[in-house]
Amino acid sequence: MEIRLSRPCVEDTTRFIAECHLGKRVMIEKLCDILRSIDAKELRCSVRLGVARFEHEGRSVMIYQSGRVDIRKIQSTDEARDVMGEIADMVKEALSDISF
């Protein structure tokens, strides 16, 4: 899984936004149901826009229908890889069979 630290966070310039990809399309309705069932903090879902946003362990996470994931407040690629693994495990039931 390729992870890229794209730019510093506006809130804290010592941390970064990590961009990665789940490798599959995301079924947003199913994703939102999963996130609601685990009581994801500050959850915002838009099926129409194809995006879900929530807080995970102090980090802001955005998951797009395309499979792209942005994680804010990351310090390193290793930390991003760990967080991405947790997120991928949480949302695996919402991944489509269509890969990219």
Low-confidence stretches: none
Portion of residues in beta strands equals over 45%
Strand order of the largest sheet: 1-2-7-6-5-4
Task: Give the C-level CATH assignment.
Answer: Alpha Beta
CATH topology tier name:
TATA-Binding Protein
Shape: globular
In total, how many beta strands? 8
The structural class is: alpha+beta
Which CATH architecture? 2-Layer Sandwich
H-E string? EEEHEEEEHE
The gyration radius over C-alpha positions equals 13 Å
Distance between the termini: 12 Å
Tally of discrete structural domains: 1
Q: For the report, how would you describe the main beta sheet?
A: 6 strands, antiparallel
How much helical structure, as a percent, in the residues? 25-40%
Number of helices: 2
Average pLDDT score? 89
Corresponding CATH superfamily: TATA-Binding Protein
Overview of the structural elements:
- By secondary structure, this protein is an alpha+beta fold.
- The protein has one domain (7-99): TATA-Binding Protein.
- The chain has helices spanning 28-37, 77-91; strands at 3-8, 16-21, 24-26, 41-46, 51-56, 59-64, 68-74, 95-99.
- The strands form two sheets. A six-stranded antiparallel sheet has the order 1-2-7-6-5-4, with helices on one face.
- The radius of gyration is 13 Å and the shape is globular.
- The chain starts with a strand and ends with a strand.
